[in-house]
Design goal:
The structure is a homodimer. Chain A is α+β, with helices and mostly antiparallel strands. The first copy, chain A, is about 50% helix and about 15% strand. Chain A starts with a helix and ends with a helix. β6 of chain A pairs parallel with β2 (about 55-60) of chain B.
Chain lengths: ~260, ~260
């Protein structure tokens, strides 16, 4: 009996992946370096192109540095309140340095490797998050990382060929939020070829999301006619993302890609 | 006893993440649609920006279509031999269509949203892979997706604002390969700021990789002086990735980003 308990305790319920929630409030309780390193061991087992592991992770625990990072993430409170902020970075620098030291001429300072590095980095980041959640930790991705890359580059002293692509706050949950909605599978999965959406498809796929009281409330609060307008006019405006595209591109160039 | 067995069978060993291997050979045995959809349910619970789920997945089971996809992936045998090939795509089209139908003006046809979409898509893709592996399936990422995007776009009939970013082959394992090496944690994790690598650091971090008999064999087989040269001169050449950067950029433009 104890033996079985031991086995089960070391395992993760498959259902965990389906029942997960993003956690934005954390207990004032440390996450040990041993646990963190254990999670990294899992994360870095994720698939990686040519076994090159073209990523680095910056661990921020220092209160002052978290305070500096906070504006780069539009002052989302998780940055200051989480015990750990992780910045997952594309890193072609380490590999290129190795090449330089081994009579090899690296050619990884271009857009193709930026994208390949992004894939590599994000597979490791997401594996970290799954591993963290199976140990009872809560995580939150900050989409703001690609909005203000230059600020993050400066604060974390990222040199050339290193680029921040995802930030994750990590800690022991101090909330148990309700699970949010997701689109139905038929709205996302295509068999054999992409089946373009008819207007009836769109209506059906977004029906449940639009029916939610919380989403109806957003429309009222923002004085809009539709939920889509809350996205286009309030949360994610065209002019903002066009400016950010330029900032992102300039930061990539400056980092040597 | 049976009860415990039942619980354990529905769970995933934490160690699975650490013990994982990429699987390139598959049994000639189908993966059911029910199982596939169950895995998608887990995958689509991954974190997603603004709960927008800006991705689509194309499921390829048809032999003819797999044969067509094969050259886009440099004829890697997994494409034809796996029962399922999944192409994970950034998809700003569905969301933009919804906006169009709801009196909202979408502004997601730019580089910032391409990158944000890439993050969204890859978190879902990797969660799919973890879920698949916990059920005993084997997976392999094909890094070739961003090398030949236009071929894949044409074969899978991807319309504007849809872009392939990761391909995963999935099936029941027909091999049990040895686990490959990984860099030591200290080579990847940085505390507080990026600590640039000295030449001694590089030597130490790559020591184990360079000591492996299999890697020494690659040097001999390719008639090179160092393992790094196998990467720069044989596997991932500068001129190839520069040409691919241009192809990738052109394909992005053509898809409306």
């Amino acid at each position: 009996m104890l033996f079985f308990y031991y086995i089960c305790a070391k395992q993760v319920r498959m259902d965990n992946l389906k029942n997960r929630r993003t956690i934005r409030k954390y207990q004032k309780k440390d996450v040990s370096t041993d646990l963190l390193n254990d999670l990294f061991e899992s994360a870095f087992r994720a698939s990686t192109v040519g076994n090159m592991q073209i990523y680095s992770v910056i661990v921020t625990r220092d209160e002052e540095r978290k305070a500096k990072l906070s504006p780069a993430h539009f002052n989302q409170p998780m940055v200051k309140e989480a015990p750990i902020v992780l910045t997952f970075c594309i890193d072609l620098r380490r590999f290129s340095k190795w090449c330089d030291q081994r009579e090899a001429v690296p050619g990884y300072n271009n857009f193709e490797w930026f994208m390949t590095g992004a894939v590599d980095t994000l597979l490791a980041a997401q594996t970290f998050c799954v591993a963290a959640e199976t140990r009872g930790l809560g995580i939150c991705y900050l989409g703001t990382t690609t909005y203000n890359p230059q600020m993050i580059i400066d604060i974390l002293e990222l040199p050339k060929l290193v680029f921040p692509i995802a930030t994750v706050t990590v800690g022991w949950p101090a909330e148990n939020p309700a699970q949010v909605d997701r689109l139905p599978l038929e709205g996302i999965v295509h068999n054999e070829i992409y089946h373009d959406y008819t207007s009836k498809d769109i209506d059906r796929i977004y029906l449940y999301k639009e029916s939610l009281a919380s989403n109806k409330q957003f429309i009222i609060e923002n004085d809009k006619k539709t939920l889509a307008q809350v996205f286009t006019d309030v949360r994610y405006k065209k002019e903002d993302s066009e400016a950010m595209s330029e900032i992102l591109w300039q930061a990539m160039k400056k980092q040597g890609f």
